[in-house]
Amino acid sequence: AQSVTQLDSQVPVFEEAPVELRCNYSSSVSVYLFWYVQYPNQGLQLLLKYLSGSTLVKGINGFEAEFNKSQTSFHLRKPSVHISDTAEYFCAVRGSGSEKLVFGKGTKLTVNP
Amino acid sequence: EAQVTQNPRYLITVTGKKLTVTCSQNMNHEYMSWYRQDPGLGLRQIYYSMNVEVTDKGDVPEGYKVSRKEKRNFPLILESPSPNQTSLYFCASCRSTDYGYTFGSGTRLTVV
Fold this sequence. Notes:
The complex is a heterodimer.
Chain A: E1 3-6, E2 10-14, E3 19-21, E4 23-26, E5 31-38, E6 44-50, E7 56-58, E8 64-68, E9 73-78, E10 87-95, E11 102-103, E12 107-112
Parallel strand pairs in A: 2-12
Antiparallel strand pairs in A: 1-4, 3-9, 5-6, 5-10, 7-8, 8-9, 10-11, 10-12
Chain B: E1 4-7, E2 10-13, E3 19-25, E4 31-38, E5 42-51, E6 54-57, E7 65-66, E8 76-78, E9 87-94, E10 102-103, E11 107-111
Parallel strand pairs in B: 2-11
Antiparallel strand pairs in B: 1-3, 3-8, 4-5, 4-9, 5-6, 7-8, 9-10, 9-11
């Protein structure tokens, strides 16, 4: 079985500052990793995914994440955030051979002017 | 436009009154799944389906039923809703050869 831990439930930052949202996972099999974003009163939108290959993955809206197998982490980063990035971000893992997507509890990112 | 459509978006009902939340996808995806989202708990899988007539329980199936008679549709049925089923529900689908699920816009259910 897989599990995901998002280490920060809330992250406040100022506009144009860099941000890192942390995600750790556990699994006994190889994994596929995802970050989703949920804007207020909306559904979930896929930001980026790691399936294989390069450990640095670039997604939409200037976000990127790095897969670190030895540390079982998949942290999300953006070098300069905007007010419009205020949302809740979910890390998710799917085990090889499984259809099940397991989510972390989410990190609320608030970008202040 | 490729999408997962859920209906209704909002629903208030009374304890014990059967209801169905519909979900339809137009992407010919094999996999479909239902999740519920609760504050502080993230998203938890209720049921999933790997293809027509193939369904199985997720982590929190109690009080829910599903069916997959057609590839595009995956309704969620609450036979006798209770207040602890008040939640935000998401339907999602993906291709068996892909790994990223596409989510619907959600259904906010309140059971009083």
